[in-house]
UniProtKB/TrEMBL annotation:
Taxonomic lineage: Bacteria, Bacillati, Bacillota, Bacilli, Bacillales
Similarity annotation: Belongs to the FliF family.
Record gene name: fliF
Function as written in the Swiss-Prot or TrEMBL entry: The M ring may be actively involved in energy transduction.
Record protein name field: Flagellar M-ring protein
Membrane topology: Multi-pass membrane protein
C-alpha cells in the first residue's frame, strides 16, 4: 500500500513537472473557482431558513412570554427582530411551535371568540360577570379589526356600556362611549379617509355608540379627530392642502399621459416630451334658479301659456233724436271744457268689447351644485425632437401647426367653463411647441431601470458565471478522467513515461549493431558462430 502511494506521488510529481506554466495557472485557477463554488452552494444548502412565527407583530411582553416558553421546552434556535415585536424560527419547526404555543394559550392578543371566553365558566356565574366577558371580547375583536387598516400596527380599546334601566325613557337613553389608542407604523400618518373608517368601525360594532362619544389617539397622544363637515361631495377632505395638491397632480398627469400617447404614436415615443401645468379652483358653488317659461307660442311667435280663466265682456247702445246742445261753446254744464258740443241731431251707436284671459306658465326651480374643483387655466409645453436632431428646421411648420391644433383642442375642452371669454389667441399663448435635440435621452433611459430590474440583472450575471464555471470544471474533470483511463489501459505507459525519446532511439540503434555483428560472424567464421549459439542455448536452459 505504501509503495502504491509513493508511486502515485511520483506520477503526480512527474505530471506536474512536465506541465507548462500556462497549464499550471489554468489548473490552479479552475481548482480555486471550483472550491469557491462548492463552498457557496454548500453554504446556501446548509443555511437555516428562518420565518416569522406569527405574521402580525406582537407586543414585546408577549414575545417575552413566548421566548420563556420556548426555552423551557429546550428550543433555543430562534431570533428576535423588529424591536422585539417579531420572533423568527426555522421554517421546518414553525408549524409544530404554533400548535404547541396555542395549546398553552399563546399569543393572547389574537382574536378570541365569546365561546372561548365562556367555555371554562362554572355553573352559577352572575350576569355581571357575563357582561364583563362580553365587553372584553368585543374590545379585543374591535382592536383586531382596526389592525386591518393600513398603517395601524396594533390597537387598544376601552368601552363603557350604559347600564340598563327599569324605566322607559327613550328621550333620555344613555349612550355608550369608547376610548381607542392605535399604535401606528413608523412614519405613518393616517389620512382623513382612514380616520373616518376607524370611527365608523367603532360606531357600527358597538350598539348605541354615536361618533361623538368616540375618542381615538395615536401612541404619541395626538388626537385623531374626525372631519365631520357637511360636505355633500364624494371627496373626503378636499379642503386640505395635501388633497388639493394630489388632485392637481392627478389632473396634470392624466392630461400629460393622453397627449404623450397620441403624439408618441405619430412621432415616436422617444421623440416627444410633454409638460403640463394646471390651475384648479376648489370652491364649491351652489346655485338656485327660479325660471318662468311659456308652454307654447302663438301664430306670431309670441310666448303663450295655458289659458287658466277667460272672461269676455260686451256692451252695445243704440239711440236717435238726441237734443241739440245750446249755450256758449265750452261753458255749458253738459259740454266738455274747451270743446264745442255737437249741435247735430241723429242716430247714435255705442259698442264695447273686453276679453280677459289668465295664462299659466312653467315655473322651474333649479338647485345646481358644481363639482368641488374645476380647471381654471391650463398650460402645455411640448418638446419635439426633429427628424434630424442636429437641424431643428427639419421639423416642418405644418407639423408644428398640427401639434398646436391638437393641443389647443385639449386646452379648449379642459377649460370649457371659461371658453366663452377666451379667444384662440389666448389659447395659443398657453401652448408652446419647440423642436430640440433630446441630449438627455440616454441618461433618462438608463435611469428608468428600476432597482428590482438591476437586482435581477445582477442575479442573471451571477447565474451565468456560475454555469460557465461549472461547465468549465466539468470539461476539465472529463479530460482528467479520460486521461486516467488511458493510462490504466496502456501496459507500456509507465515504461514510455520513464524513458525519453533519445533513450529509446539509442536502444534501437544498439540492437541493430549487435545484429550486424552476428551476421558478419556467421558469414566469416562459421565454427565460432556455432559455438556462440550453443553457449546461448545452454544459458537459456540453465536459466
Amino acid at each position: 500500500m505504501k509503495e502504491k502511494i509513493t508511486d502515485m506521488k511520483e506520477r503526480i510529481a512527474g505530471f506536474w513537472k512536465n506541465t507548462s506554466k500556462k497549464s499550471k495557472t489554468f489548473y490552479l485557477g479552475t481548482f480555486i473557482v471550483l472550491i469557491a463554488i462548492f463552498c457557496f452552494v454548500f453554504f446556501f444548502l446548509l443555511k437555516t431558513n428562518y420565518v416569522p412565527l406569527y405574521t402580525n407583530s406582537l407586543s414585546q411582553k408577549e414575545i417575552g412570554e413566548i421566548k420563556d416558553v420556548l426555552e423551557k421546552q429546550g428550543f433555543t434556535d430562534y431570533k428576535i427582530e423588529n424591536n422585539g415585536t417579531q420572533i423568527l424560527v426555522p421554517k421546518e419547526s414553525a408549524q409544530d411551535l404554533i400548535v404547541s404555543l396555542a395549546s398553552q394559550g399563546l399569543p393572547k392578543s389574537g382574536p378570541i371568540s365569546f365561546s372561548e371566553q365562556t367555555k371554562d365558566l362554572k355553573f352559577g356565574v352572575t350576569e355581571q360577570e357575563l357582561d364583563v366577558i362580553e365587553r372584553e371580547t368585543i374590545q379585543k375583536q374591535l382592536a383586531n379589526l382596526m389592525t386591518k387598516i393600513s398603517g395601524v400596527k396594533s390597537a387598544e380599546v376601552m368601552i363603557t356600556m350604559p347600564k340598563d334601566s327599569v324605566f322607559v325613557r327613550p328621550e333620555q337613553e344613555d349612550k355608550a362611549s369608547a376610548s381607542i389608542i392605535v399604535d401606528l407604523e413608523p412614519g405613518t400618518e393616517l389620512e382623513q379617509g382612514q380616520i373616518k373608517s376607524l370611527y365608523f368601525l367603532a360606531s357600527k360594532s358597538i350598539p348605541n355608540l354615536p361618533k361623538e362619544n368616540i375618542v381615538i389617539t395615536d401612541q404619541y397622544g395626538q388626537l385623531l379627530s374626525l372631519d365631520d363637515s357637511n360636505d355633500d361631495s364624494s371627496f373626503v377632505g378636499v379642503g386640505s392642502y395635501e388633497s388639493q395638491r394630489k388632485i392637481k397632480q392627478k389632473v396634470e398627469a392624466d392630461i400629460q399621459r393622453s397627449i404623450q400617447q397620441m403624439l408618441g404614436t405619430m412621432l415616436g415615443k422617444d421623440k416627444v416630451y410633454v409638460q403640463t401645468f394646471a390651475k384648479l379652483n376648489f370652491d364649491k358653488v351652489k346655485t338656485q334658479q327660479s325660471l318662468v317659461e311659456p308652454l307654447t307660442k302663438d301664430k306670431d311667435g309670441n310666448p303663450l301659456g295655458i289659458a287658466v280663466s277667460v272672461e269676455k265682456i260686451s256692451k252695445e247702445y243704440k239711440g236717435n233724436g238726441a237734443a241739440a246742445a245750446s249755450g256758449v261753446s265750452g261753458t255749458g254744464q253738459g259740454d266738455v271744457p274747451a270743446y264745442a258740443s255737437n249741435s247735430d241731431s241723429g242716430n247714435n251707436d255705442y259698442k264695447e268689447t273686453q276679453d280677459r284671459v289668465n295664462y299659466e306658465f312653467n315655473r322651474i326651480t333649479k338647485e345646481i351644485t358644481q363639482s368641488p374643483y374645476t380647471i381654471e387655466d391650463l398650460t402645455i409645453n411640448v418638446g419635439v425632437e426633429p427628424p434630424n436632431p442636429k437641424n431643428p428646421a427639419s421639423l416642418t411648420a405644418d407639423t408644428q401647426d398640427n401639434i398646436r391644433n391638437i393641443i389647443s383642442n385639449v386646452v379648449r375642452t379642459a377649460i370649457g367653463n371659461n371658453s366663452s371669454t377666451i379667444t384662440d389667441a389666448d389659447i395659443n399663448k398657453r401652448i408652446t411647441v419647440f423642436p430640440k435635440e433630446f441630449t438627455g435621452k440616454t441618461n433618462l433611459a438608463a435611469a428608468s431601470v428600476s432597482e428590482p430590474e438591476k437586482r435581477s440583472y445582477i442575479n442573471y450575471i451571477w447565474i451565468g458565471a456560475a454555469a460557465f464555471v461549472l461547465l468549465l470544471g466539468g470539461i476539465v474533470a472529463a479530460r482528467f478522467i479520460r486521461r486516467k483511463r488511458e493510462d490504466d489501459l496502456d501496459p507500456f505507459s509507465e515504461f514510455l513515461e520513464a524513458k525519453t525519446i533519445n533513450e529509446f532511439e539509442e536502444d534501437v540503434r544498439n540492437k541493430q549493431t549487435v545484429q550486424n555483428e552476428i551476421n558478419q560472424l556467421a558469414g566469416k567464421n562459421t565454427e565460432e558462430f556455432v559455438e556462440l549459439l550453443r553457449y546461448w542455448l545452454k544459458e537459456e536452459k540453465e536459466g
